[in-house]
User: What shape does this take?
Amino acid sequence: MIVSANFDSGNIIFDSSRETKDFTEINLRIRKDIGAKFMQWFHFRVQDVNKQALVLRILNASEAFSPTGWRGYETCVSYDRLNWFRCETEYDEKELIIRLKPEHNTAYFAYFTPFSYEQHLSLVSKSQLSPICSLRSIGKTVQNRDIDLLTIGENSVLKKKIWILGRQHAGESMASWFVKGFLERILDSDDPAAIKLLRKAVFYVVPSMNIDGGIAGNIRVNGAGRDLNREWADPDKEKGPEVYFVKNMMNDLGVDLCFDIHGDEELPYNFVSRIDGIPGFDERLARHQSGFTEAWKIASPDFQDEYGYPVDAPGKANLSICSKNIAHTFNCLALTVEMPFKDNADLPNPGTGWSVKRSEQFGASLVSALLMIIDQINR
Assistant: This one.
């Protein structure tokens, strides 16, 4: 029996194992984010299982960033790294216990379906083949990787400037799948909604803000141990260059709308984090916010606004958080989009839970929602 995680986004520590006549029990621990105290993401493979029943115990699950997020969670499993399904998982308030009788000799396990750096490079490279899309690097990460920016559509003073930021938190890989779904639709030259929307908007898309953290197998932080979604008030060029360079580009190009794409460990719903608590929140921003959420509910049955984070009291929003800071700085609608690690409780799929396909479809639905409200967005 071999347990390994020495690959892109790999994270697990082997503790011990024992074999019985009925199953093999493997004890594991999740490694903390490099340079930080957070931990929750895992991604590893088990080889030489010989189709014997496995009981995997993550011994330090109760020390995770969101231990209550394990309740009702089921682990993602794959044999080929392309097709992923969920398997029986239990949290006993101390350990996360994963049970599987493998159909093949090697099985991969992950907190959510991974989206690797190679997949990121393929996505941005393929996107630039569209005549309406350009790709450029706007800076370097802590570990000297490119910060990629896609510009979609022709810039014009008459067009709305819409920013989409993916995966500030390294382990929230559903954000990458969401952005992929959005890009495939907005770049579809045969999609009438995309064509019409691009007559009225130009998009600036950073598909992955936290490349270094994703490769390292972190759940939240970048290569310097910084939570990028707490860096927006005063970005540090050395410790948080990903935010520093993106915010500088926003200052240069302008922002009329911004969507920061995330995943949530606890809530089994898709929702947005509201901006009611920012200084200067007024009737205009309230109208934009309510208009957009109503439009997205129409565009996608996977979106709802009954469940979500508590709304900040007036003037009490944390301006180090991306969406709050952008909304305040540019006096525009900026929303944090959250998807579940578990499933959408409104429309559950027991076999896959919240999945790659649903994430991509949800990203694609943003095009329809934006088309409904784009004419209502004013500066």
